[in-house]
Design goal:
Length: 268
């Protein structure tokens, strides 16, 4: 029997809808993971609505929750997964928490979805406070093992624009140099060889050989677009990437075959 694998998921919570912990927790549980969840915010609904109400946790409140876990000696995790956050001090405390957990378990993997903004009609904008960006760049990304920015977020973190696949690879190299061994640009507006009906995601995984050298694997995934509006897809993506890398830690690229999704991804 496979040993229990426990994840600490620190993301948003909404009363109505499925984003953040509401999007990530159940799918991971279905796949056999044990999930402990901290809600970075508690909102009536996601912020894409005309109106939303709720609470935003700060660093002291996160510290208090974590201290409760420590006092009961139940702060033992294999993974930390983080997503939407709105408070600068809270995000800084997440870094302290990850470092403390890595001291207890050197094999702990931190999967960070640096949720900051996106592009609409070719223009990018942030939907979290702008003072979170330097915290992500200077503190969060350096302690992360896996990051899953979209194209706009990758540009913010690297300080470089992406207009081609070559520029995207250069940006992923910059993000590697900041700390993470695995970088996935979950969505982009780059043109697909298959046409305008397809969306491109790009991945880069840096692996260390026994002799101490490193090798980097690059992948491209092309997914057919669906003419609809979805929320929580990035949260679900990060959770499913965590599950995949747990089962296949040195193989970011899935094997082609009958188990492909209906989107029929193309890898190269």
């Amino acid at each position: 029997m496979e040993e229990e694998c426990r994840v600490l998921s620190i993301q948003s919570h909404v009363v109505r809808g499925y984003v953040g912990n509401r999007a990530a927790t159940f799918p991971l549980q279905v796949l056999g993971f044990e999930i402990d969840a901290v809600n970075s915010v508690q909102f009536s609904n996601h912020t894409g609505y005309a109106h939303w109400k709720g609470q935003v946790l700060n660093s002291q409140e996160l510290h208090e929750l974590y201290e409760g876990l420590k006092l009961n000696s139940v702060n033992k995790y294999d993974y930390v997964l983080t997503g939407y956050t709105r408070d600068k001090s809270f995000l800084g405390m997440v870094v302290d928490l990850v470092r403390d957990l890595k001291q207890q378990n050197s094999r702990l993997v931190y999967v960070c979805d640096p949720v900051m903004g996106d592009k609409w009609n070719g223009e990018g904008s942030m939907y979290v406070p702008e003072d979170l960006l330097p915290v992500y760049k200077e503190k969060v990304v350096p302690v992360a093992d896996i990051i899953t920015p979209n194209q706009f977020e990758a540009e913010l973190l690297s300080g470089r624009k992406i207009h081609s696949q070559e520029e995207a690879l250069a940006v992923m190299d910059i993000l590697h140099s900041m700390g993470p061994d695995t970088v996935v640009i979950t969505s982009s507006d780059l043109p697909s060889p298959r046409g305008s009906d397809y969306l491109i995601a790009l991945g880069s995984q840096r692996m260390r050989r026994p002799d101490g050298s490193t090798v980097t694997e690059r992948i491209r995934m092309e997914m057919r677009k669906v003419d609809a509006v979805f929320v929580g897809t990035g949260d679900l993506f990060a959770a499913m990437l965590l599950a995949w890398t747990h089962k296949h830690p040195d193989n970011l690229k899935p094997k082609p075959g009958r188990d492909r999704s209906p989107a029929q991804p193309s890898w190269s």
